[in-house]
Structures
1.
Amino acid sequence: MRRQIPLLITLIVGAVLIIAAFIPRAPFGRLGENFSLYFDIIAVFAFLLGGGNLVRIHGARLVRGVGMAVTEAKKGGGAWPLRFVIEFPFLAFGGLKDRRGRDWFFSLITLLGFFAMLAAGLLKLGNPSGWQGNVTAPEGMFQDFYDSMFNPLQATMYALLAFFVASASYRAFRAKSAEATILLVTAFIILLGRTPAGAYVTAWMPESLSFLTVPNLANWVMAIPNLAGQRAIIIGIALGVIAMSLRVIIGIERTYLGSDEK
Amino acid sequence: MTNGVNKTFLEKMQAIDRRVIFLFIGLAVALPLLFHVVFTEKITPIVGAIYDRVENLPEGSKVLISFDYSPSTVPEIQPMVDAVLRHCAARKVKIYIMGLWATGQNIADETISRVLKPEFPAYQYGEDYVNLGYKSGNQGLINVILTDLKKMYTTDVHGTAIDSIPMMAPIRNLRNFDLILSFGGGFPGMKEWVLFAGDPGRIPVAGGVTAVSAPQLYPYYPSQLLGLMGGIKGAAEYESEVIRHYSRFENSSHPGIDMMGPQAVAHIVIILFIVVGNVAYFLTRRREAEND
């Protein structure tokens, strides 16, 4: 029964949603709408599941890491708490030999961040309107955390991409074969075409050859070869999704239910 | 001996330390910002399509703007949002704000406080613009509000009942909007708006995405996607066009235009590094062939 009921639910919901897409009239239209609504309600519970999972994984890593760090500190003999404090930078930042215990300090930071944001949001700490106020009120602690921690940290992480992309481009774009040369030339066109420099470089070209200017070439690359490739990928993915969806609805694909082992 | 020294040099040029590249990229971004290097932008058809649609909307038209991004992509996306918001407000259209991303709600609040409230004091909340906030459900949410918006949104972001907000009275579902603008670059985002709202509801969908996401959306343009702003360049093009037609925005912030200088120089530096790597590679191969 533990497997049959979910399979039955999947079959009914999947079949109704497919029929509703082709026959959007009663009762399928209404049923399709309601099933989408149920999905939205279930999606809310995914947050609880996600949060619980994060606490479980990082909690276990933290307990294991701290345990190993304490054992390491005790090895030296004497007053181990003092040794733990002295050796903290070593023990906290990847110094432990057993890699299962490493990075426990980052798990601690993750959990502290998670619970601090959760408390600030749920209890609306510092919110001038109290419980009735908007969770993102500018004076609230939740917004403070968001503005002064989350926002700059995320922006910093993304900004680092510019440096890595530059380094990766330099290493990857080598004209070692015909295919690599095509990729290299395309990269040049797009890199120049996405900046005003592209227009300046080919500004001298006569009107009759305007199609050869870098911005026009960049637009052509995006609108013709890129479009063709993307469309092929999209159609391929769509066919794969249809096949997989049918397997799930019919009940051939059951991996989403977990294993049979108890 | 000379040959050996040259070979070593060429080998070095093929494997420049990444920290050297990082330093050059850092300078390529910082120096144009310090010296305020600015270029003029010419609008491309794919961005111009969005501008023209907004420009031709009659006063009082209903535009839905979805904030589907997080602070990580704010530098790329926010300039587009600011420019479009200014344009919409200048056209006196009704602006409905929502978000498929939880982080979008904060960004929407911040955008309203920074752009709409100070620059358009006559714009009244509930009459001219409303913030519906974030709701979970991704494409499932779009699927529901395509037929019944009030099933998911019973209040706005401040907890005010939807039915007591004047500008929500004519809205029953997504089909009541004249234009949907999505800003983001990940999932859920513009692709979901096209597939679950634009296509089935025959509603014009457009917006802006990060530069890396833009190529994936080209297959939908122009039949399913009205227009597309890709990265900082898209933002700079839109900003330039808005400033060209509305001189009152000349003194407003235009980060898209400002960031095109650093982007141009950084791209040129990347190209130079690629050229150096390839020249060194070919010279090494030629030397090896001569020695053989």
Note: Residues 1-122 of chain A form one domain.
2.
Amino acid sequence: MMSQGRTLTFNIFRYDPQQSGDKPKMVKYQIEETPGMSVFIALNQLREQQDSSLQFDFVCRAGICGSCAMVINGFPTLACRTLTSKYPKGEITLMPLPGFELIGDLSVNTGKFMRELAERLKLWLHPNLDDVDVHRLEAPMAPEEAAKLYELERCVECGVCVSACATKQMRETFVGAVGMMKLARFELDSRDQRGVEDFYHVIGNQDGVFGCMTLLGCQDNCPKDLPHMQQIAYLRRKMAVALV
Amino acid sequence: MTIKTLLPASSIPGLAGHPWSARADKIQSATGLLLGCFLLAHLHFESSILLGKEAFYQVVQILEGGMFSESGHGFPVLTQIFSVFILLVVILHAAVALRRFPAQLGQWRALRRHMNGINHKDTHAWFWQLVTGFILFFLAPVHIFTMITNPEIGPNLSAERVYLDNAWLLYALLLPAVVIHAMIGLYRVAIKWGLTANRSGLRKVAKFMIIYLLTIGMLSLVSYLFIGADLTIPVEPYIPH
């Protein structure tokens, strides 16, 4: 196995905004590569053996929680799903995701961002309130519809699409792919009473689908391979014919 | 490195859909598509000089409506009218495309910082579309105004413009700018509205078209220079055999 016995060099962005006088800098670490090592495993080893002050986020280590997203050699992605054997030179540069509030080092506050986005776009189910009868069984959903919803529901809110989007970096109020993906999910849901007009008033503007410049950083970097390109094109076509 | 996040919804009272957002996006794509298709035709028509003076003369006569005149010569006024139309389309396209420009220094710096930190090909392609689009603000109108004021097109008359009037300098700069801008733009319009899902195939077509159009454009420009160098003053229009 080619990944055995190599010495990996990590260049890691270090900065603690909580510490007065601390300045952003790149720090070099070296570590012995082990078989099947992911960037996430390497970071844990670094923290255990070399520098206990190193900050980064993780929960599930299996690409489900979306916490460990960072920029690895220029590509925003999940650290737990990136094998170190992918880099033949053994040099790995880690930067925090741009576009989010920095907590420290590689840790960014995606949670705050996602919550504000959800509040702004009202990313929850809006059931038909005139039709509330707790004694009645809920109508079953067609399997095809459930499958469609589940496809979009796979988003783990890692923030990669936001960091990969130059439009979002230039225009702070732009909702980004995650916002449009989640709205598309409710647009498809037959239980949601919101119609095309309601969605139009949320994303039918320069901050929504008509602000997207189709740079496709979201599509090319999404660690869950969500169909951002098709989804945004679908919303754009839908919004383009609404209210004209 | 701290970067502000979104303001909470309550602090953005004006957040709402706007019909002009949809219209601007549609106008930008439609005018872009029109101009891109026009460019494809235009570059092929003018490159017919590569097949000889006679071929180019015939193309010009057809496009200027030579079949409707008794003498068989076309009407240059058609070129003038069409040039005015294209100018209007260019103005409309530029007006709506301006929305995309990083008009503030902060936005420009955010773009450059993003491009330095994140490795993404399509973002780089868009950046070149942005740069060439900016260049076209200055070069495209010069070319179109020339065609409105001096619409005479022909093997000798065009060569006179290119060589004796030094328009080659304009064309040598305009050609790469407009070809790169238009081909990346057509690629983007197709995926933006979901006309095709075969993105990698479309990218290959766009790359091929850029090389192909630059080649025929540059070769025809060189042949106009050669024809221009052989002209005798005063320049006589080409007479077909």
Note: Residues 103 and 202 of chain A are 30 Å apart (CA to CA).
